[in-house]
Design a protein that fits this description.
Layout lengths: L2 E5 L2 H19 L11 H9 L3 E8 L2 E12 L7 E10 L4 H17 L4 E3 L11 H7 L16
Parallel strand pairs: 4-5
Antiparallel strand pairs: 1-2, 2-3, 3-4
Length: 152
């Protein structure tokens, strides 16, 4: 098994990403809560500008996972570069790949001078227990995120 974890551009791997993104959506979304309709064009624009990043894991050339984040500045602390981790999904059966992806992402954060990474995970699916993983990697619990359906 040859594992490769690297930064990739959305335009170079969109069909593969779409397959995994649908798998993630199916695993973590409540039925009827949010429909599956990613804004690929906005992601492409942000990716090409360097704001939205994709870290991709491949086993024997086949995409098995992705970890994404947004590069931003902390508006409450001038000059502080941060990242907000976004979607992270690895096909079932690849737990070591997920760990290696996270560690590689942290390396990427360091390369660009990130001071803080804001990490998140779902309350459903396999990601529900990621808080403990984050803490083992040195993260501190900050708070909860909630989603409120405003428009029905």
């Amino acid at each position: 098994m040859a594992l490769e974890i690297k930064m990739e551009k959305l335009e170079d791997m969109l069909p593969e990403l779409q397959r995994l993104a649908f798998m993630e959506h199916s695993e973590v979304e409540k039925e009827g809560w949010r429909e599956y309709k990613p804004d690929w064009e906005s992601m492409r624009t942000l990716n090409n500008s360097g704001i939205f990043q994709f870290l991709i894991a491949r086993v024997d050339g086949r995409m098995v996972g992705y970890l994404t984040w947004l590069v931003d500045f902390d508006l409450e602390c001038k000059g502080t570069l941060i990242v907000n981790q976004s979607a992270w999904y690895v096909e079932p059966g690849h737990p070591i790949v997920a760990v290696k992806m996270f560690d590689r992402a942290v390396e990427e954060f360091k390369k660009i001078g990130v001071e803080f990474a804001y990490l998140t995970h779902t309350a459903r699916g396999r990601g529900a227990n990621l808080g403990r993983f984050f803490e083992k990697r040195g993260a501190e619990f900050l708070g909860y995120n909630y989603i409120l359906r405003v428009k029905k």
